[in-house]
Design goal:
Elements: E1 2-10, H1 14-22, E2 33-40, E3 43-48, E4 53-62, E5 66-72, E6 76-87, E7 90-101, H2 107-131
Antiparallel strand pairs: 1-7, 2-3, 3-4, 4-5, 5-6, 6-7
């Protein structure tokens, strides 16, 4: 099992951050995603630019506070927990991925991959939030 965490303080109110992160139908700001297929309110499928598919199952969604889902693809399965903490006119995001490898990939490679993906996500998120100012 590999755990990877991303924490950041964003200079935007929690509603704005929440709306961008949880609006899965509006994914064009994500540089790593080609498309997202919404199955229903609790399931969606992300496809990378290389057409790699990951299934997501929403387990909890508490507006402006917490979003949890399970994910699975050919290489891994696990859980993602996103916490949104309002602090004055800023938002603290605390996103944790808890991943189990399905294939014998080195644990260190998976950890590095997750960190890289989280940095890319944060960069894309900041860019989108600035655009919406």
């Amino acid at each position: 099992m590999v755990i990877s965490n991303l924490k950041a303080v964003l200079p935007y109110n929690v509603k704005k951050v929440w709306d961008v992160v949880t609006d899965i139908g509006n994914y064009k700001w994500r540089s790593d995603i080609d498309k997202i297929e919404i199955i229903d309110k609790d399931k969606f499928v992300e496809y990378t630019k290389n057409n790699y598919k990951t299934d997501f199952y929403v387990k909890e969604k508490i507006q402006y506070k917490c979003w949890k889902f399970e994910m699975e693809n050919d290489n891994l399965s696990g859980q993602w927990v996103g916490l949104f903490i309002e602090k004055e006119d800023k938002t603290i995001i605390d996103f944790t991925e808890n991943i189990v490898r399905k294939k014998p990939v080195l644990k260190i490679l998976l950890k590095l991959y997750l960190k890289k993906q989280q940095k890319l996500y944060l960069r894309d998120l900041k860019k989108e939030l600035r655009k919406r100012e």
